[in-house]
Every structure is written in structure tokens, then in C-alpha cells.
Amino acid sequence: MTTQARDNLTAYAFLAPFLVIFAVFLAYPVFYSIFLAVHEPPADSFDVFSNLRFVGLANFARLLQDTRFWWSVLMTLYYAALIVPSGIAASLALALLLNNRLRAVKAYRSAFFMPYVLDMLVVGIVWTLIYSPHVGIVVRILKAAGVTAFAERGFLGTPGTAMPAVVLANVLKGAGFGMILYLSAIQNIPASLYEAAAIDGASGWQRFRRITLPLLRPITLFMVVVGTISALNAFVDVYAMTSGGPNVDVGGRALGVTWVTGYYVFDTFYTQWRLGYAAAMSYVLLALAIVISLANRRFLRSEA
Amino acid sequence: MDHRTQARIRKVVLYAALTAAAVVVLFPFFWMVVTAFKEPGKEFTPDVIPNPPTLENFRRVLTDYGFGGYFVNSVIVATVAATFATLFAALAGYVFAKKRFFMKEKLFAFLLGSLMIPGLMYVVPQFAVVHRLGWMNTYQAMIVPHLANVFGLFLMRQYMTTIPSELLEAARMDGAGEWQQFRKVMVPLSVPILATLFLLTFQFHWNNFLWQLIVVNVERLYTVPVGLALFKSAHEELYTLKMAGSCISVIPIAALFFFAQRYFIEGMTMGALKG
Q1: CB within 8 Å of chain A, chain B residues 150-169
Q2: CA B184 to CA B98: how far, in whole Å?
Q3: Nearest-neighbour CA in chain A from B140: distance (Å)
Q4: CA dist A173 → A98, A130, A262 (Å)
Q5: pLDDT value, residue A304
Q6: Which one has a higher pLDDT value, A164 or A139?
Q7: Where in the sequence is the domain holding B185, given as residue range(s)?
Q8: What would the mean pLDDT of A98-127 be, rounded to a whole number?
Q9: Residues in chain B closer than 8 A to A8 (CB atoms)
Q10: CB contact under 8 A, B114 and A26
């Protein structure tokens, strides 16, 4: 055996466990879901995999006419439009606060980051207690202050506040991650830039606006891309707090104001066992993700 | 106002702002713990200190509602999964860092490319694969599909690239085989990154709620998040018990974070900062 052949053999022997799992559980499923998307299980069968029926593009055709699906895309975009900017603002605010020479800065940094590693499901469940109309602390405080608008249904049960309430819970949990990114970028900005600006008479706000913000742009763009992609995946927070509700009447149909696409996929798959339809839906999600990545890459390039 | 006073005021304001932010961010967890120690049915009290505090909620969720068993399952799943995910990523990261082989660059780009695909894409077909394999309601269904951690592979490769190849060369001169070079040279020098990846994958599997919910539907195999989600749907109003269950779910990770926060913070942000 040549040295080269032996090297290849050794390398692939080391890679084997990783590649086998990757092939079976990550690569193959992506293609398998194409197969699923053009099939439907028989309506009356409990075993969802026996007698899969080929239905061609029927799932996609139905998807195009499915109001609940397009509504879910709309709610996903609404979710993203709330969570991306507020997540960025919260992360940046925390980073700016930490970017000071204070003794306890490390302890605060840990405190802000910790919720990021904890389980979203638990965080969501805790917020259902905090937001609850009957036993929730926020509603009780508001009641004491004379605000009774939420006394009946709470924040999660009121259509206008349900999505912002879900997003707030998520932002407070996740801000620590962006905070670290911003903090390390801020600390990489040379002090000489600020000194020069100060000599030129720039105020603190001007220095932030003209030096800090532009130099943090790469991080901000990264946060936009990653934040949007993860918004497309939003599920656990909605599952824990609202289950897609509360419903509002849209042209005679009851549609949930937190009915994001991730939740619809889960509902289609896990509650109704329509695997093909769920797979078709997730392809539309993938398409959205690709469009967003490409748009951002383009944007990034034109910026540079 | 002189400079000293100004600096002092600035400091006080900063500390006040930091403390206010910390209170807001940590309040849910504080309220979770407080409520978990309140007597059942007293969750509506605004008391910050439960009066009287009780362990009854914990006793009941652990014994009457099976969280003791769920906890054991979570420990098994997270520990086994983290061990193998770390091992596989280390083996693969090692060859990407130190070996030359057929299709190396293309393969690496292909693997990294998979990170772009939204996780939700995988859920349905992965479930189908597990179902086909006859793995429903098993530990391996919860563990095996997530053992190829591409982000972990990336972390490993980044770290191992910085370890001098001369050390491997020297070991080979001393007669070490391929496996021994990995085991006796690479692994001991990579302990920090191995620890980081172990902690990150442990955390991932501990919180991997959606997947565990899908592949397991017998109570014997429930993990803490699955048990908690089903408990939540079944007993919407039992808040003190829910909060005790939440504490059981969160405390192990919070404790790990407390002792190893550097690994968590660096590991989780490394990909974003270098990539």
C-alpha cells in the first residue's frame, strides 16, 4: 500500500464515526424529506409509514392555498421584526454598560449571560406564571396601579400583547450572547480613535454615533442574519407560552397571533401526523432561509 | 463640580444601571425559585420570601409526578451524548487539523455548509429515519441522531490546528502509532477544548426538548423537559409544582455554568467571533 493510500485510510478511519452519523441523521434526512414532501400517508392508517401514497406536488399546491400557512409566514416575519432589533438593542446596551472599568464587571457579565444557557422551555413556563392574569405578579402590580386591561386574559391571552410578551421573554434570555460579541468588538476598537475625536471636540454621543456604531457593523449584520434564521426556527417559546394563540378573527377565520411557521410545522407533524405536508412546509422555510442568507451576503458585500 | 465627584457620580449611576439590568434579566429565575418554595395554592402571593417556605413541591414532583426518574433519564442522555459527541468531534477535528487526505477541503466545506440549514428542516425526516430503524422509545433515539456536531468539529479543528505538529512527529519517532499519537499527544493537550465541547453538548442535550418529546412517548423514558412540558399541559394551574419542576430542570445547567462559565462563554461565542 502506498503512503498516500495509508494516510487516506487512517484519516477516514478517524472520521468514520462522525461521517456515518452525519450521513444517516443529517445528510440523508434532507433528501429524504423531499421524498416525504411528495407523499402522503393514508388518511385512516395509524402507521404513518406504511402505504405512503405518491401525491406529486399536491402538498406544495395545497400549501399555496393554505391561509393558515401564509398567515404563519406573516406571523414569523412579525416575530422576526420584533425580536431581531430588540435583541440587538438589548445586547448592545448590556455591552456598553459592561464596557467600563468597574470592579464587579465580571459578575455582571456572568449574570447577563447565564440565562442564555438555560432551557427556553423552562424560561417560557416561568413567564407564563409572571404574565398570568390570575396569579401573575405583573398583572397584580398593574391592577394595584389602576390598570385593569389585562386582568381578564393576561398579556399572553390578549392579542395585541401576546407576541411582544413572547419576544420580551426570549430577548431577556438571549441578550447575553450578543452582549459578549459586542463587548469583544467594542474592546477591540483602538482607544486612539476616541482620543483623536475628543481632541477634535466630539461629544460622547458623537463618538458613539460616528466611531463605535460603524465599527460594530459586522457584529450587527451577523446578529441580523443569525437572528432572522433562528426566528424562522421559532418554536419552543411559542409552545411554552401561547401554543400559537390567542386567536383573532381575520376575514371570518380564527387565526392565532403567535401562530409562527415553526409551530405550524410541529402541529401538522406531531398533532395531525401529516408528515408529507410538514416536510413540504419546512422546504418553504428552507427557501426563506436561503433567500435571507443570500440577501444578507449581497448586502454585506455592497457594504464592504 | 470637580472631577473626583463627577467620576464618583458616574460610577454610582453605572452600578445602578447594571444592577437594574441584572434584576430584570434574572427576575424570572428568582421568581421561579421563590414560587417553588411557596405552599401549593399560594403562588398568587406577592411575597418575595415564601411564608412559610416549604419543600413540599419538590417532594411531590420528585415522587408523585416522577421527576426523579425523568432526572435520571436526562442525566443518562446528556452524559452519554456529550461523551460521544465530544469524542467523535475530536477524532474528526484532529484529522482536519493535522492530516492531509482525499477530498479534505471539499468535505470540510460541505460539513460546515450544513450549519446553514434551519434545524426545523431535520425534525420530520429525522423522526422518519428513527422510526424506520425501529428506535422509537429508546435511549439511542434521543442520543444518536445528534452525535455528529458540526459546530463542535469546527471548534476542535480550530483548537488542534494551534498545537505544534512537531509534537506528533516526535511521538512517531518514538514509535507511537496513529491512535497513540491522538490518544497520548493530542488529547492531553486539548483538554480545555474537550471540556468546552463536553459542557456545550451536555447543555444542548439537556435542553433538547422538541426532539425528546417526539421520539419518546412512554413515561419510563421521559426526560425532565419532556416531563415538564406534559405536566404543564395537564396541570395548568399547579404553578408551585411547575416551578419546582422548572428548578429541577434548570439547576444542573446553572450549576455547571457557575463553575465553568469561562468554557461556556468562550465556547459559545468562539464560532461567531472567529468565523
Answers
A1: 150, 153
A2: 15
A3: 12
A4: 17, 15, 19
A5: 46
A6: A164
A7: 66-274
A8: 90
A9: 101-102
A10: yes
> Cβ contacts (< 8 Å) between A116 and chain B: which residues?
268
State the pLDDT at residue A19: 93
Say whether A19 and B239 touch across the interface (CB within 8 A): no
Distance between CA A272 and CA A283 in Å, rounded?
18
**Has residue B262 been placed in a domain?**
yes
Q: Does the distance separating the beta carbons of B17 and A289 come in below 8 Å? A: no
Q: Quick check: A136 and A154 in contact, CB under 8 A? A: yes
**CATH code for the domain in which residue B83 is found:** 1.10.3720.10
> What would the DSSP string read from start to end of chain B?
--HHHHHHHHHHHHHHHHHHHHHHHHHHHHHHHHHHTSPTT-TT---SS-SS--SHHHHIIIIIT-HHHHHHHHHHHHHHHHHHHHHHHHHHHHHHHH---TTHHHHHHHHHHGGGS-THHHHHHHHHHHHHTT-TTSHHHHHGGG---HHHHHHHHHHHHTS-HHHHHHHHHTT--HHHIIIIIIHHHTHHHHHHHHHHHHHHHHT-HHHHHHH--SGGG--HHHHHHHHHHH-TT-HHHHHHHHHHHHHHHHHHHHHHHHHHHHHHHHHHHH-
* Strand partners for A40: A53
In a domain, B44, yes or no: no
Residues 32-71 on B with a CB inside 8 Å of A are 32, 35, 43-44, 46
Q: How far is A231 from chain B (nearest CA, A)?
A: 10
A113 at interface of B, judged by CB pairs closer than 8 A: yes
CB contact under 8 A, B28 and A279: no
Locate the chain A residue with the closest alpha carbon to B201.
A117
A114 contacts in B (CB within 8 Å)?
26, 254, 257, 261
Please give the CATH topology (third level) of the domain spanning A58-303: MetI-like fold (1.10.3720)
pLDDT tens-digit series, residues B71-91: 999 999 999 999 999 999 999
Query: Which residues are A247's β-sheet partners?
Result: A256
Residue B19: all three cell numbers together: 444592577
Given a cut of 60, whether residue A44 has pLDDT beyond it is: no
- Mutate which: B124, B147, B250, vs A, most A CBs within 10 A: B124
Residue A249 sits at φ, ψ, to 5 deg, of: -90, 115
Residue B2 domain-assigned (yes or no) = no
Q: Is the pLDDT reported for residue B34 higher than 90? A: no
Helices (H), A145-216: 154-157, 159-187, 191-199, 204-207, 213-215
Closest partner residue to B99 among A11, A22, A115, by Cβ? A11
Residue B35 lies in a domain: no
A125/B246 touch (CB, cutoff 8 Å), yes or no: yes
